[in-house]
Amino acid sequence: MTGTSVAARPARYDLLDPLEASRLGGLELFAEGVVEGFLAGLHRSPRRGFSVEFAEHRAYQPGDEPRYLDWRLLARTERPYVKQFEEETNLRAVLVADVSRSMAWSGAPERTLTKLDYARRIAAALGLVLLRQRDATGCIAFDDEVRAVLPPRARSAQWHRLCATLAALAPGAGTAAEPALRRVTDLLRRRGLVVFISDLLLDEALALRALRFLRHRGHQVLVVHVMDPAEAELSGPAEARFEDPETHAAVVLRPRDWAPAYRAAVADAVARWRQDCGRHGIQYHRVTTDTPFGVALREVLVRPGLA
Amino acid sequence: MIAFLYPWALAGLAAAAIPLLLHFRAQREPPTVVFPAVRYLRDATRQHQRRLLLRQWLLLLLRTLLVVALVLAAAGPTVPLGSAGPHAPTAVVLVLDNSLSSGVTVGGTPRLAALRRAAREVLARAGAGDRLWLLTADGIPRRGDAASLRRLVDSLAPSAARMDLGAAIDVAGRIVGGAGLPGGVVVLSDLQGSALGAAATRQPVLVGAPAGAPPPNLGIASVSPGAGPWSPGGGTVTVTVAGDHDSTPVPVTLTLGAGPSRQALVGLGRPAVVTLPGGRAGWTALTARLDPDELRGDDARTIAVRVAPPARVAWSASDRYVAAALATLVADGRAVAGDGLRVGSLGAGASVVFPPEDPALVGALDRALAARGVAWRYGALVDDTAAIDSSAWLRPARVWRRYRLVPTGSGRTGVLITVGGEPWLVRSGPVLLLGSRLEPGWTELPLVAGFVPFIDALVGRIAPGEESAIDAAVGTPVLLPGSVDRVRWAGGSATVEGGAAFTPPQPGLYWLLAGGDTVGALAANADPRESDLSPAAAGAVRALWPTARVVKLEDVPAAAFGLARRTDLRGPLLWAALLLAVSELLVAGAGAPRKGSIE
Description:
The complex is a heterodimer of chains A (307) and B (599).
Chain A: H1 2-8, H2 18-22, H3 27-42, E1 54-59, H4 71-77, E2 81-85, E3 92-98, H5 115-132, E4 136-142, E5 146-153, H6 156-167, H7 177-187, E6 193-198, H8 204-216, E7 220-227, H9 229-232, E8 240-243, E9 250-253, H10 255-279, E10 283-288, H11 293-302
Parallel strand pairs in A: 3-4, 3-6, 6-7, 7-10
Antiparallel strand pairs in A: 1-2, 4-5, 8-9
Helix pairs in contact in A: 3-5, 3-11, 5-6, 5-11, 7-8
Chain B: E1 3-4, H1 17-25, E2 32-34, H2 38-75, E3 77-80, E4 91-96, E5 105-106, E6 109-110, H3 111-124, E7 131-135, E8 141-144, H4 146-155, H5 165-177, E9 183-188, E10 205-209, E11 218-224, E12 235-243, E13 250-256, E14 261-266, E15 272-276, E16 282-290, E17 300-307, E18 311-315, H6 320-331, E19 335-337, E20 341-344, E21 351-353, H7 362-371, E22 376-387, E23 398-407, E24 415-419, E25 422-428, E26 431-434, H8 451-462, E27 469-473, E28 478-479, E29 486-489, E30 492-495, E31 501-502, E32 508-514, E33 517-525, H9 540-544, E34 548-552, H10 556-560, E35 566-568, H11 570-590
Helix pairs in contact in B: 2-11, 3-4, 6-8
């Protein structure tokens, strides 16, 4: 059913405008559509490593390396199968999603998704990619405390559970990432992958310390900094009182006067995150909510070599 | 001093408040915008707050200055240039204030001498191409070359006439305006406060202010002998003094003709009433004199007093109010009952005729008047409230009932008092006709305080054909009574037309003649305002003469011919406005905090 629906859709939904893509259907349908398009555009299989211990056969998919085809089985059954090995399923991944109140914001609701909706969808797509690789994938959602925990599993039903968990997330109150990141250590006993999806409007020092801790435990850590385009460029009425929805701290100023300084402050913050993460071997990616999901996935997955 | 071609445009300076108002308007509570990334805003403002605040105030200053510069440019400001070196042909009117106050002695030197010296130095700098005028207290502008005007200046003496400097400057401004040359008005004056009047001229005015404060001064302000003639036994005179300081009472000596003098102490604002013995019948000079001070011209004042024997009057007891007034005059020695003047009805000789109570008798009275050759008759009865027009004899009072007085000849001569513009008391030879009976049913006159003095003047002065004594200021025109055909004074006489204006040229007594008889006198004295030597307040000159520049008296000659050399500031102001506008753009643009790029 799902496959039929996906097949009926255009091939590259991953490159659609995010708001437009989000209208395709529910989270699962959307993620499958995006991921299919994304994978088709890679020109190589996202599956990794075909070595070590044989685990099972699976049907050949476009992009799979031809050298992993089981030629004997092809000759016997006249159907292409590739061999998959046990090591590929060893990766355990946890998606850590920020669902604080600041995430439930869009500078232009008629044109862009809220950061939370975008994060939800990018997490679902990431989860699908990982699960298709038979990587055990789980998730943790947090605002000022941990709101939801889905332990990593590689079963086929995990995808549905992951989507259900992400879909049920409602925006919370403040932001406290450290407890959620600490909780990851309970879920990942061995080395694994931690994808931290947040607008990073949180206590930087505490969050960085927790991320460093994860890195120190040997996990591969990936930070996805979700930003609304309106947060990158300051605009608004001639003069306005800008109020933080979480802390209710406010600043009164004229956007026209302060736009350059604000842009510089944002650039400073992004550069600081990039530098601090890079210094500790943490992958940092900034995506804005108007970035097509396929582009964002490529940014997040291809460069670090996850796919 | 800065002057403006279009001073009304300065009202636009109020627009300079617009940037400030907009600034404060922007301080009001703005709309709230929910914005998660407030922390970045706080980072940005923390770094640039002081710089932007400074920039805001700098922009406010630049914008305010821009408005001010544009408004000033619109007003057309000009400033005088230096006066060194030869000057282009210039029209200059020298206003030399030789009014009475210029005769005061300050530091041993008459004020007028200092003014004349400054005038001579101005004239000495005049070139052949200059056009020059001299305007003095007599109000006559005289044009001439430097040499002839210098001779006029040398001959000037303090005049008893007052000089209204505002009016003189306007006259001078018109002369300069019509001269066809650039130029201005040079005022050399003691800048007596009471002499300053507003001037509307747009010509540049250079004012030379003499150094040194004037001494305190008092002068005789008025001498009043009362309305009626004095009897040979004497009369009373009221004396007041004027000046610029409130001193203790000062002695004033009063002399009637060649009679003995009397002294009285008179203080500022405290008039004294003095009784003097009379003299021979006729007009006699009465002089009030103060002890000499630094300004001699106002220390004496002369008026004319008419001394006459008591009038012989006959009246009817039925005219109750008139009878009561005449009884009072008789008791006071100012009239005698007898066959002389008949009051109330037409007699054989001089008469003051009242209209009859019964209208049926008016026709008979008119016929009798015509038989006597009287050129007036009684006309229609008017029952309407009207006021007696003010005259030398009588103050306004209401009249409710009157007969119109109608001339029987071609002319309307002999009108002495009018009511609502119509004749009410007229003379024809020895006969006087009154339009109303002097009873409360006809007029309120019998019930007012001036009634007895009016009857006194009527029988003592009006009926004998005398006019009132007129008190006038030197140089100020006065209207002569209609019967006067000649004016005679010490050293001259002039034929005049009755009812015309006459300007006494010098202080003294002027006898008013009618057919060879002296019917009145005009006493010309200095204007009492000249006695107050208080100089004008510092800001008064600029307030009253907008184009004036005040300099020291000794600086006037150097600046006199630079009056017209003014430079227009509109160009520099427009350049300044342009620079301010560019600066504003630069500060508004380049003053923004540094830009950044997000990767």
